[in-house]
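for the writeup, i need someone to sanity check this before i put it in the appendix. the sequnce is what the collaborator sent (i think, or maybe the updated version? ugh). structure was predicted straight from it, no edits. if anything looks off just tell me and ill rerun, i have time this weekend
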Amino acid sequence: MSEQHVRTEEFHVSGDTLVAKIKELVQEGNVRRVVLKNEEGKILVEFPLTLGVVGAVLAPQLAAIGAIAALVTHCTVVVEKVEQPAEE
């Protein structure tokens, strides 16, 4: 059995770079969940990602993120990443 370790990272981004940052994180391939928070820390949107999510499947979520980006000046992107432990 392989154990999975989940690590959380936070990124502070401006609204105009939000979609690009999300795309960059998704391309890394180990992102499990993305949460967007406003400047006060209130959750704006939260969505899970499954392995292999690309293209048309991700398009509705990116459209929602784009709409949020137009409304906020700064936000926090909280990302849960799955890490496989090194094999011994």
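Residues 4 and 67 are 33 Å apart (CA to CA). Residues 5-83 form a domain with the Dna Ligase; domain 1 fold (CATH 3.30.1490).
thx in advance!!
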